[in-house]
Design a protein that fits this description.
Order of helices and strands: HEHEHEHEEHH
CATH architecture of the largest domain: 2-Layer Sandwich
Number of strands: 5
Helix content: 40-55%
Shape: elongated
Strand content: 15-25%
Number of domains: 2
Structural class: alpha+beta
Distance between the termini: 88 Å
CATH topology of the largest domain: Alpha-Beta Plaits
C-alpha cells in the first residue's frame, strides 16, 4: 500500500512529464514478459523516448486538466511513452508493436495539447522522421535542377 505522500509525489512527477513532453502515448502492455519489456525500454531509450508504468488511478489524476478533449479508454495495464519529439514516441511504440505482435497496443495519447485515440496515434506513428522528410525535400528540389543541367549540357554538345 502506497502512502499518500508517495502517491502525491508520483502524480507530481507524471504531471511534470506531461508538461515537458510534446507527445505522450498510452500503451497497454498486458501479457508482456519482463525480458520483452527490457528490450522495449532499451530500444525506446536509444531513440530518446521515456517509458513509465503507472497505476491507472494515479495516471487519471495526473491527466486532469493536462489536455483538451476526452481521455481515451485506458484498459488493462497501462504505461506511457513520451518524448520531446512529436513523432518519436508513437513511432517507436508502433515499430515495437509490429515486431512483437500482440504484446502491446496503442490506446491513445496526447498530441498538440489534445487527447487523441489509438487510431490517430497510429497515423502519427507512420509519419517519417524529420530527417527523412528533410532528405526527401532536398531530393525533390535537387532533381529538377539536375535535369536542367543535363539538358543544358546536351544542348551545348550539339552546338
Amino acid at each position: 500500500m502506497l502512502k499518500k505522500s508517495k502517491k502525491e509525489e508520483m502524480i507530481k512527477d507524471l504531471k511534470q512529464t506531461f508538461k515537458d513532453s510534446k507527445s505522450v502515448v498510452f500503451v497497454n502492455f498486458h501479457g508482456m514478459k519482463v525480458s520483452d519489456e527490457t528490450v522495449l525500454r532499451r530500444e525506446l531509450r536509444d531513440q530518446g523516448v521515456g517509458y513509465k508504468v503507472s497505476r491507472k488511478t494515479l495516471l487519471k489524476r495526473a491527466l486532469d486538466k493536462v489536455a483538451e478533449g476526452e481521455l481515451p479508454e485506458l484498459g488493462g495495464e497501462v504505461a506511457i511513452a513520451y518524448s520531446s519529439d512529436e513523432t518519436a514516441s508513437p513511432r517507436e511504440i508502433y515499430n515495437f508493436q509490429k515486431t512483437h505482435k500482440g504484446m502491446i497496443n496503442i490506446l491513445g495519447g496526447i498530441f498538440n495539447g489534445k487527447f487523441v485515440d489509438g487510431v490517430y496515434m497510429t497515423e502519427i506513428a507512420t509519419i517519417p522522421s524529420k530527417e527523412v522528410l528533410l532528405s526527401k525535400i532536398a531530393y525533390l528540389l535537387k532533381s529538377p535542377m539536375q535535369r536542367l543541367a543535363i539538358a543544358v549540357n546536351e544542348v551545348a554538345k550539339t552546338k
